[in-house]
């Protein structure tokens, strides 16, 4: 069974269900990507895994433990971390302060972790006294990811991390994400840029209208003619 | 939407309770007092109605009511008092010249604004123009004011008015307030709710400052007394044939009788005005214009997207509401027979009317009127009631006890506390007020 | 040369020193308002009366101390009363949060509702203050009145004009400086302070990071009460205490906070001084100043006063409107929503 898994998830934000018996899982050290057309429920599925909406049916298990009823803050304490798509930094606070806030729930000395983040994202070390709001889009995303990593999570969830960034920055971000995965963290990502995301993915979930349509390795999905035709724009 | 002709049960109950309260006062204290209170209740209700037009229809947070009411009061003085010929001769021409200077300065500033490119230079030139204009008009203004104010300062010391019947001032007051509102609205209505609140509060402070210190205008804090009346004087009734005849027929003291007749006359006038305004407001509410106003209030972005000129509508509402308040201000000064700038205290005035609208029912005209009656009645009666409670509560203490003395002295301030509690409790337990707006789309 | 020095001393005495003292008081008041706005996201109209409440407690304690013969020698006894007054004011304010604002927070009510609620709290506080201490003037300063007296200065300098530096003015400036340093240290260097800035910056992300919202709210109210009490006491020592005056201070305080940028502590301080200096500079009668500087034939007759002091509030208001129209986020770009 996967390290983090949401099984048979059915639910939504209000009366109408967005997810229908959806299953998403990720292993430690693995990169899992959720792709699909607009409105497919990709972000919703991830938010469900993080506890930001209640499920009518289904459950979420972290390392075998049932966390379905836990609040997002409680899940952070269990070792999950979430990077929202927008408004994911504290704009008036410096990069370093953003990282400090990321580690807010930690009571121990986190300077070692911060050094690790700086190694991973050297540009953050360079700009660590600058207010996060003044950085470029790509750099802000790095701050956002760095902030989320300060709790030394076992699972890192990213909601469309490359939304609105240029292709070069996107490549760089994906490189970093691979680096993070190599440290043993499970990475779950929702992405619009399906092709590039699947290229780095160990596992891919194609969601359509709230349910799983295709589940396979990233490579296999890229090679799959049906997937190519419907979601990857041919070729 | 208020279906015409059919009033709801809560409304009937509430107004019924009010009527009983007034009757009780008449019985327990005096009919003259009861009528006095009722007169002010009507005026409070009109002001409340005016505010409701701004807040209930359009969601505008106007905390500058006092200023507009004071402008209405000023109109009462400027319309009805006789002109002080000597003062006009002494300082009139110079004063007018000063105003002309000011006007020229403003026009010059606008011209500079239009001609120059935006930037530092334009700001500099405009500032210079305005400073030059300020100095030039002050050159004429200061000596003119000195001259005017030195004309018989204990009795006049100001320019006086137009000597017209005071009822005209009710209309003039409304128009004056409307004009001021138009100007102020043009500048400030784009602001968010709390910014608008502070801006309007500031404006009313300025208006009040002007009225307090520009003695040449309305005698400032020396006050204007003895304003002419639209109804007969008590003395005249007491001495008239029909007055004496009726008084003896009713078996009443002729002074009491005269006082009650006077108050009833005022009441008749005010109720007439209230009725007309209420009818107008209801008509406006039910009209397409009213529906559009509420649509804008409930979702401004959507309304704008649909091409409604939100700013213009807001300005209309602001002007109309302020006109009503100005009218009420003139009525109040007429009732008082005097104009006292220092009595316009924001706590006793502006915020009290806000409590009236919120407690009565924002967005509901009848609610605003009810709120006006209820809260004003309570405000006036809270002092004697509070005193009575204190006396009973401390009756077991010796009369020399300093605590007792202090409590009795301070009983009056309890009404501020209770007013605050009423507002807070309403916000929590009945946020839409006693008579909620019909057909509202869930504002809170 | 003598004339120039005299003119400068005149300005120092009647413009610079009073404006700096007043600016310090306004800055502290504006800080309280801007903190509540930044974190609780509404304009607290009850802040002026909170200042009155805090000062009232200080006055009562001062009278008690004085009756027991306890004093601070050179410094005003009132300073001793400040800590307890802050405690009591904080309790009052926390109660209002618990019983009034929290309900609306849970209902996610729009900011206007909080504004109206703060008007209710204002009525309440105003009534309480008047009930307890009455609506009249109260003077409660004691200790040494002057740091520099006019006569001492004249003797020392040999100049015509004497420069006066009152203890209350010196205290306002010194205490405000200390408070500001302490506040900034708290916000910039401590974990709790940073968490409050984070909460003000991005509420959702702060919650995600595990920051406890109720704790942030509580500390905000406590700080606001402390700032109000200190500001009110300094103002009262300098200019006397009257409940109505504190209500009127709402306008310059809000003007200061908005000018600096609502939500920005640095802005509140800058705004406080801008408003204070504008008020004093624009209402001072420069007659004597010009008399010193200009040759005798050109000496002015009139008062040379731009605006009468009665229009003090008009100045705050005009500054406020100008800023709102030209640069609504204020000098330091606070929050606009």
What key phrases describe this protein's structure?
heterotrimer, B: 444 residues, mainly alpha, ABC transporter involved in vitamin B12 uptake, BtuC, 18 helices, disordered N terminus, disordered C terminus, C: 337 residues, two-stranded antiparallel sheet, 14 helices, globular
Layout: helices, strands, pairs:
The complex is a heterotrimer of chains A (235), B (444) and C (337).
Chain A: E1 4-11, E2 19-26, E3 31-35, H1 42-50, E4 55-62, E5 65-66, H2 72-77, E6 80-83, H3 95-102, H4 111-120, H5 122-126, H6 137-149, E7 155-159, H7 167-182, E8 186-190, H8 194-200, E9 203-208, E10 211-216, H9 218-223, H10 225-231
Parallel strand pairs in A: 3-8, 3-9, 6-7, 7-8
Antiparallel strand pairs in A: 1-2, 1-4, 4-5, 9-10
Helix pairs in contact in A: 3-6
Chain B: H1 9-28, H2 31-58, H3 65-80, H4 85-115, H5 120-149, H6 166-188, H7 193-213, H8 215-218, H9 234-239, H10 241-250, H11 254-286, H12 288-298, H13 300-305, H14 310-336, H15 350-360, H16 365-393, H17 402-410, H18 414-429
Helix pairs in contact in B: 1-2, 1-16, 2-11, 2-14, 2-15, 2-16, 3-6, 3-7, 3-14, 4-5, 6-14, 11-12, 15-16, 15-18
Chain C: H1 2-40, H2 47-67, H3 78-106, H4 111-133, E1 146-148, H5 150-157, E2 165-166, H6 167-189, H7 191-201, H8 203-208, H9 213-239, H10 243-248, H11 250-260, H12 265-283, H13 287-293, H14 312-326
Antiparallel strand pairs in C: 1-2
Helix pairs in contact in C: 1-6, 1-9, 1-11, 1-12, 1-13, 2-3, 2-4, 2-9, 3-4, 3-9, 6-7, 6-9, 11-12, 11-14, 12-14
Q: Summed up, what is this model?
A:
The complex is a heterotrimer of chains A (235), B (444) and C (337). Chain A has 235 residues and is of the alpha/beta class.
The count of β-strands of chain C is 2
Largest interface: B-C, 46 and 54 residues
Give the CATH level 1 class of chain B: Mainly Alpha
CATH topology tier name of chain B: ABC transporter involved in vitamin B12 uptake, BtuC
Can you tell me the residue ranges of chain B where pLDDT is under 50 for at least 5 consecutive residues? 1-6, 440-444
Multimeric state of these chains?
Answer: heterotrimer
CATH topology of chain C: ABC transporter involved in vitamin B12 uptake, BtuC
Q: Spell the H/E element sequence of chain B.
A: HHHHHHHHHHHHHHHHHH
CATH architectural name of chain B = Orthogonal Bundle
Compute the number of helices of chain C: 14
Q: Topology as H/E string of chain C?
A: HHHHEHEHHHHHHHHH
The major pleated sheet of chain C works out as: 2 strands, antiparallel
* Average pLDDT, all residues of chain C: 89
Report the sheet-strand fraction of chain B. Answer: under 5%
Count of structural domains of chain C = 1
The description of the largest β-sheet of chain B is: none
Number of helices of chain B: 18
Q: Round the mean pLDDT of chain B to the nearest integer and report it.
A: 83
Strand order of the largest sheet of chain C: 1-2
Share of residues in helices of chain C: over 70%
């Amino acid at each position: 069974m996967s390290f983090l898994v949401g099984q048979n998830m059915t639910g939504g934000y209000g009366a109408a269900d967005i997810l229908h018996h959806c299953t998403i899982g990720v292993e430690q050290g693995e990169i899992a990507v959720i792709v699909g057309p607009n409105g497919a429920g990709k972000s919703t599925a991830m938010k469900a895994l993080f506890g930001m909406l209640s499920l009518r049916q289904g459950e979420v298990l972290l390392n075998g433990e049932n966390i379905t009823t836990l609040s997002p803050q409680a899940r952070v304490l269990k070792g999950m971390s979430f990077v929202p798509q927008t408004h994911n930094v504290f704009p008036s606070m410096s990069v370093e302060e953003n990282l400090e806030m990321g580690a807010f729930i930690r009571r121990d000395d986190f300077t070692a972790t911060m050094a690790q983040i700086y190694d991973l994202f050297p540009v953050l070390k360079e700009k660590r006294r600058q207010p996060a709001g003044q950085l470029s889009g790509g750099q802000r995303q790095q701050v956002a990811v760095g902030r989320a990593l300060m709790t030394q999570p076992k699972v890192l969830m990213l909601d469309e991390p490359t939304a609105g960034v240029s292709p070069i920055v996107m490549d760089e971000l994906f490189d970093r994400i691979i680096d993070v995965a190599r440290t043993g963290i499970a990475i779950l990502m929702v992405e619009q840029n399906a092709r590039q995301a699947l290229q780095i993915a160990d596992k891919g979930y194609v969601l359509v209208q709230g349910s799983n349509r295709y589940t396979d390795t990233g490579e296999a999905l890229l090679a799959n003619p049906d997937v190519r035709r419907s979601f990857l724009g041919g070729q | 939407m208020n279906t015409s002709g059919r009033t709801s049960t809560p409304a009937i109950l509430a107004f019924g309770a009010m009527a009983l309260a007034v009757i009780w006062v008449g019985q327990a204290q005096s009919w003259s007092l009861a009528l006095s209170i009722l007169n002010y209740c009507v005026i409070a209700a009109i002001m409340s109605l005016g505010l409701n037009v701004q807040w209930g229809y359009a969601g505008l947070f106007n905390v500058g009511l006092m200023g507009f009411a004071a402008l209405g009061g000023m109109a009462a003085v400027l319309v009805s008092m006789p002109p002080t010929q000597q003062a006009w001769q002494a300082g009139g021409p110079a004063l007018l010249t000063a105003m002309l200077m000011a006007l020229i300065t403003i026009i010059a500033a606008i011209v500079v604004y239009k001609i120059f490119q935006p930037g530092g230079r334009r700001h500099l030139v405009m500032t210079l123009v305005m400073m030059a204009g300020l100095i030039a008009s002050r050159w004429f203004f200061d000596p003119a004011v000195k001259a005017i104010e030195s004309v018989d300062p204990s009795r006049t010391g100001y320019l006086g008015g137009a000597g017209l019947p005071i009822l005209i001032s009710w209309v003039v007051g409304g128009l004056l307030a409307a004009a001021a509102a138009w100007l102020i609205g043009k500048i400030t209505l784009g602001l968010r709710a709390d910014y608008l609140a502070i801006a309007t509060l500031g404006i009313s402070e300025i208006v009040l400052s002007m009225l307090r210190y520009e003695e040449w205008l309305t005698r400032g804090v020396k006050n204007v007394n003895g304003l002419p009346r639209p109804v007969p004087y008590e003395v005249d009734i007491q001495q008239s044939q029909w007055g004496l005849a009726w008084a003896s027929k009713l078996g009443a003291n002729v002074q009491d009788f005269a006082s009650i007749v006077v108050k009833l006359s005022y009441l008749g006038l005010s109720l007439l005005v209230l009725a007309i305004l209420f009818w107008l407001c209801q008509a406006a509410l039910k009209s397409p214009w009213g529906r559009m106003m509420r649509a804008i209030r409930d979702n401004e972005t959507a309304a704008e997207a649909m091409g409604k000129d939100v700013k213009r509508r807001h300005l209309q509402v602001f002007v109309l509401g302020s006109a009503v308040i100005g009218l009420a201000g003139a009525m109040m000064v007429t009732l008082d027979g005097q104009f006292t700038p220092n009595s316009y205290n924001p706590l006793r005035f502006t915020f009290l009317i806000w409590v009236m609208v919120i407690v009565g029912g924002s967005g509901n005209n009848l609610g605003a009127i009810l709120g006006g009656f209820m809260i004003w009645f309570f405000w006036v009666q809270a002092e004697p009631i509070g005193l009575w409670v204190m006396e009973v509560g401390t009756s077991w203490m010796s009369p020399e006890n300093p605590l007792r003395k202090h409590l009795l002295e301070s009983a009056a301030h309890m009404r501020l506390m209770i007013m605050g509690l009423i507002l807070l409790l309403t916000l929590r337990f009945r946020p839409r007020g006693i008579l909620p707006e019909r057909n509202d789309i869930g504002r809170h | 040369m003598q004339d120039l020095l005299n003119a400068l001393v005149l300005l120092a005495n009647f413009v610079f020193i009073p404006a700096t003292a007043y600016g310090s008081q306004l800055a502290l008041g504006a800080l309280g308002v801007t903190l509540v706005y930044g974190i609780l996201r509404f304009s607290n109209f009850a802040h002026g009366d909170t200042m009155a409440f805090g000062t009232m407690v200080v006055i009562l304690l001062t009278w008690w101390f004085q009756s027991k013969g306890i004093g601070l020698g050179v410094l005003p006894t009132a300073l001793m009363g400040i800590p307890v007054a802050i405690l009591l004011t904080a309790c009052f304010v926390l109660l209002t949060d618990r019983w009034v604002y929290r309900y609306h927070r849970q209902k996610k009510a729009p900011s206007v509702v909080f504004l109206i609620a703060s008007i209710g709290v204002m009525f309440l506080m105003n009534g309480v203050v008047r009930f307890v201490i009455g609506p009249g003037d109260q003077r409660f300063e004691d200790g040494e009145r002057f740091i520099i007296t006019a006569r001492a200065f004249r003797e020392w300098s040999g100049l015509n004009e004497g420069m006066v530096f009152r203890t209350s003015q010196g205290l306002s400036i010194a205490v405000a400086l200390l408070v500001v340093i302490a506040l900034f240290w708290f916000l910039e260097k401590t974990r709790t302070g940073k968490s409050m800035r984070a909460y003000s910056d991005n509420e959702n992300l702060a919650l995600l990071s595990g920051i406890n919202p109720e704790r942030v709210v509580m500390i905000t109210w406590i700080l606001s009460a402390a700032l109000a009490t200190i500001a009110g006491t300094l103002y009262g020592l300098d200019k006397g205490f009257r409940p109505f005056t504190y209500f009127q201070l709402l306008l310059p305080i809000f003007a200061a906070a908005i000018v600096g940028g609502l939500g920005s502590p640095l802005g509140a301080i800058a705004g406080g001084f801008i408003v204070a200096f504008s008020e004093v500079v624009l209402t001072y009668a420069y007659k004597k100043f010009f008399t010193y500087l200009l040759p005798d034939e050109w000496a002015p007759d009139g008062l040379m006063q731009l605006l009468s002091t009665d229009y003090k509030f008009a100045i705050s208001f005009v500054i406020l409107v100008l800023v709102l129209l030209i640069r609504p986020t204020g000098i330091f770009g606070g929050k606009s929503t």
